[in-house]
Design brief:
The structure holds two protein chains of two kinds.
Chain A (H helix, E strand, L loop, with lengths): L4 E3 L2 E4 L5 E6 L6 E7 L6 E7 L2 E5 L7 E4 L6 E5 L8 E8 L7 E2 L3 E5 L1
Chain B lengths: L3 E4 L2 E5 L4 E7 L6 E6 L6 E6 L5 E4 L2 E5 L5 E6 L8 E9 L2 E7 L3 E6 L1
Parallel strand pairs in B: 2-11
Antiparallel strand pairs in B: 1-3, 3-8, 4-5, 4-9, 6-7, 7-8, 9-10, 9-11
The chains are: A mainly beta, B mainly beta.
């Protein structure tokens, strides 16, 4: 499968725990995006990378959220000290340089108890 | 900050009826994209519009970009059950061309 993959697909955690999600984009795509989506809403922009550089981070994102893309390939999104309000679907998307079409992964559904 | 709005939020139609969703941005957009998300699925790119007044068709789907490049519409002719899902418009956000802001979506249900 040459699409965007995300791992894990589901994560259940207790409030206060840290969680980390992984995204593997399509290999030739240099742009990678993270979004959060809650029921009945559109994807909410969190951050994006061009290669390994994190170029923008949403002001809505608290300091508990951090993302990396160390080698310009896969990316990780970490949430520290999770809260119940963090429960959502976390989507990753990638695209190539000259085309705005984003390819989304299946998402990681996070449930914070 | 920039806002992207869509109406209606929900639409229920009888199979064979037409469907239209409207997207409005608080700022002028350099381009607008449309995505479809099936229930339980992830967003899938449908199309991008770039030019003022542009109209593009994909089989039964017609996409239009407004003259002022602040609004767009998606029209589906003779809906089928395969059209079920949520349709999102999205455009560049703020000062960054690469940041993409999605609208809240229009959820379409088709009654067979």
């Amino acid at each position: 499968d040459t699409g965007v993959s995300q791992d894990p697909r589901h994560k259940i955690t207790k409030r206060g725990q840290n969680v980390t999600f992984r995204c593997d984009p399509i290999s030739e795509h240099n742009r990678l995006y993270w979004y959060r989506q809650t029921l009945g809403q559109g994807p909410e922009f969190l951050t994006y990378f061009q290669n390994e550089a994190q170029l923008e981070k949403s002001r809505l994102l608290s300091d508990r959220f951090s993302a990396e893309r160390p080698k310009g390939s896969f990316s990780t999104l970490e949430i520290q000290r999770t809260e119940q309000g963090d429960s959502a679907m976390y989507l990753c998307a990638s695209r190539e340089n000259r085309n705005n079409e984003q390819f989304f992964g299946p998402g990681t559904r996070l449930t914070v108890l | 900050g920039q806002q992207v709005m869509q109406i209606p939020q929900y639409q229920h139609v009888q199979e064979g009826e037409d469907f239209t969703t409207y997207c409005n941005s608080s700022t002028t957009l350099s381009n607008i994209q449309w995505y479809k998300q099936r229930p339980g699925g992830h967003p899938v790119f449908l199309i991008q519009l770039v030019k003022s007044g542009e109209v593009k068709k994909q089989k039964r789907l017609t996409f239009q970009f407004g003259e002022a490049k602040k609004n767009s519409s998606l029209h589906i002719t003779a809906t089928q059950t395969t059209d079920v899902g949520t349709y999102f418009c999205a455009g560049p956000g703020g000062t960054s061309y690469d940041k993409v802001i999605f609208g809240p979506g229009t959820s379409l249900s088709v009654i067979p």
